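Reproducibility note. Readers wishing to regenerate the assembly model reported in the main text can use the exact inputs given here. Chain order matters: entities are listed in the order in which they were concatenated for prediction.
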Amino acid sequence: MNTYFLKLCWKNIWRNKRRTFITINAIGLGVMALVFLRNYYDTFHEQVIHNVIRYHSGHLAISAQGFEKNNSTQIFIKDGSAVNQWIQSRSDVEAHSERVVLSAMLSSARGSSNLWVMGVNSKNEARVTAFSQKMIKGEFLIAPKSHSIVIGSKTAETLSADIGSKLVVLTQGVDGSVGNELFFVSGIFETESDADKSVGFISLEDARSILSLGEQSFHQIAVILKQEEKTAGFKELFEKGFSVGSQIEIFSWKELQRPVVAMIELDRAVNRLLMILILCVAALGIANSILMSIMERTREFGVMLAIGTARDEVIKMVVVETMLLTLVGVLVGNVFGWFVTGFFNQIGFDLRWLTSKDFVIQGAVVQTISYPTVRLYNSWVVTSVILCLALLVSYFPAKHAGNLTPMKALRSH
Amino acid sequence: MNILEFNEVSKVYGQDKAGIHNVSFSIQKGELIALAGPSGSGKTTALNIAAGLDDFSLGEVKLLEQSLKYLNSDEVLELRRGQVGFIFQSYNLFPVLTVLENVEYPLALKGMKRNERLQKAKEWIKEVGLQGLEHRKPAELSGGQQQRVAVARAMVTEPKIVFADEPTANLDAATAEMLLQLFQRLNEINGTTFIFSSHDPRVIKFADRVITLTDGKVVGPDDLN
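Running the prediction on these inputs yields the following structure tokens for the assembly.
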């Protein structure tokens, strides 16, 4: 098809401007909605993933066999020096933090509360999780073996505790003995998640001391990689290095946070369904517009065929007209989709008006406000799908036009 | 050399409605022929069959020395492209295209390059006396001007034969005469064969030869039956 016929197709789609504008608007609105929604969902999912990684296990969690499944503090790695050494030798690791986990009861003069107390190296933990950035009072952890404890805002409320308050940590040691120590509240965090009432932090040394664990012992190492995509590769390499007999296992965040992964998958499925519905409506609009245009021009097709236009050229013409019309709608929709995404990237897209509560997924709060970013991949997907649909819906009207007999077509009004 | 031959051609519509009956005639290259007869006499049917636009029930039609009976629709279309011109009663120009673009259309179908196409289209627009109106849309032209665009569109590929179905039916007498004079001139200069249908005696007088049809049959001097 040469430029002359492209020009003819272009002029043909504008012969009924009102109808063309309506069709372009329908396509444009659908594409805009899809581009924005897909950009929003991707950002939202990344945020969910970021939250579960940054408030829980990191990208990967290494622990003694059975610890993650049973949540038992009796299951621990006795000598983790080899594991530590291996992790430190890896250039793809951004940060890692050893953890000693205590299932403890915290008591103050005003009350008591059960929670998971994590014994951590404050510097390492600060690079792995985001708790240290969520301090509303005091500091994360002052110094090793300081008998200082960091608790969440809800725990502080239950125990009527504040900075400097005394709390007794009561737990069962790995040898079965009951250990209790006096701690001073050195910091209070607020993450707006379940962690505010269920997690506390003490130093690694204090935790080992209460549980009677050795210097190289711990329950878990949380690992943050430089790139999330390398999680599976890292896990595979680790498993090769620490395979049979090591009694050590490694889990990716996807394995530890299955409900989150399932939620994201479900969300994506609903998104795809929405995309299909919106695109089907747009495709119907396109089909309607093209059919009307063909019915109006039956006589013209008769003239074209009479003066020597080949049938496949007529078919091609109708298909190209449909594709041009769709392309204009898609371009308009993409531009507006980017604009809307950019706009909400600046001011944030808040779902609070649709839901009265924050989302809590696997204990991590997912903020209702997101700052979506433009992702060309989404535009590419939406554009490709709608162009394929347009091609599909144009085929039958085009075939009808191509199959007209000149005489019949010339007799029509 | 016969450019068009009808040998005992019949066309039957439905069970009892006849279009044409055993029509035979032949037309030589360079003739200016009028198909005459009253309304419903079969002029348009004969013209459409001759051009390969309509099929026929019996007989044989040879256009440009090829029997249409043995050609499929695509082969007929190929035969028409560039070698046969059409002029319709109601002009049938493409409304979205300008005069120049309308005339360019058959050349674009032939795959001619843009510059060559434009030059040729402009030449024919000048030939039919529409110079200066190249960028007007058909709706901005009078009936006579539109028909002249249709003539330019039909002639631009320099076809061997041009069919015109009641080309003057929608025109006033003066414009009709001008159009017929144009046919005569193009016929004389280019040697193009023109076959036009009409029932208007003032128009028919311009023809070299008249084939008269009545009730689907050829009557008069060209009745070869």
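We highlight two features of this model. The first strand of chain B starts at residue 2 and ends at 13. Residues 173-190 of chain B form the longest helix (18 residues).
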